[in-house]
Amino acid sequence: MILRVLFSIFAGLAFSAAAQPVPVTVHATPSGQFELLRSGEPYFVRGAGGVSRLDRLALAAGNSVRTWGSEQTAAVIDEAQRLGLTVCAGLWIEHERRGFDYDDAAAVQAQIERHCRAVDQFKDKPALLLWGVGNEVESRASNPKVWDVIEAVAAYIKRVDPHHPVMTVLAHPTPAAVAEIKRCCPSVDILGCNSYAGLPVLARDVRACGWTGPYLVTEWGNDGSWEVPKTTWGAEIEPTSTAKAIQRAQRYALIRADTARCLGSYAFFWGQKQETTPTWFNLFTADGRAEESVAVLESLWSGRPPAVSAPRIGALQLNGAAAAASVQAAPGATIRAECALLRGEPGERIVRWELLRESGHKGFGGEAEVRPAAVALPLLHPAPEPGRCAAEFAAPAQPGAYRLFVYVDGPEATVANANFPFFVSAP
Fold it and tell me: What is the pTM for the complete model shown?
């Protein structure tokens, strides 16, 4: 009985100690460099944005996860602590472009109070790294009162939580948005920047816009769907998973190059979502297979070769043409699809093909989208060829825009993928 009581006491003490916040500060050196200190030790963020597969993030030598709202934070913060990860806790500031009225004083006050309650809920969690107050609120917005809300929440954090810095997140920075933050938000410590094709000039633009403090790259990855060539009917041409992995490696080198101001980054997207296509930003497919970019990140974060190498794939072609040719076909016409398999094995049980209608609802700024319906795809598989994936199919009978996907499964739940938009013309 005595031993049981003592065990209970020690267990309670251990839990109490574990529940204490871990102090995080932004440290400025005399030479003008910045770094995050966690428990007094330098902490460079090797993070990902998303709320799933945190165990895989930890195995890949990632150290932090970014959320966009308090519901997401509640879902992951204890698991992050168990896995040795930290959390950039997002507080979702409503967007004017989504209908929020910043002249509605009651709605504004309710929003501020909701976020203050979330701060009280999470501020002492050991896994908490910093607060992210707002994400791209400047996009398609005209009411400057949104910055007053960000400052109200940030100032509350400063009053009740001395242990964690505060960040607000922009799309690629502009002089106007940075000026508003400097004017209205003195409680913000860190500038968050979401940047894709603009990443090569991000360090320059942060400085040119007048931000003199540190920044985090809060979203980054392959070119965005708004940054790529399109077909003549407006379908975005998506890079292959292999091309995306190459882009990520090149862009991470740029992130690491800014040793004076950059505190780290959060790769986007550690999970799966429909955004233009079901594969555009995702590091995982819907069935949980990891793209090559996951292995690339693991190598970059850990400094060693990845444990598992994903397949590699060349650009998909239809009837010998590239997607930039804006391929069209008559209903029922035979189409040959093929691509080079740069690493992996061909075969019907490994190579999967899927046909979707082109998305008719493409959102802005990460808005929720619905995955298009799949279309029946009766395939003719030629005999497997070394280093090649190929199939033939009949164009759909109904005219319109479509997108063909190919997936090549690899070892230990890895995958390569590519897709090709084409148009079935009216007879």
Answer: 0.93
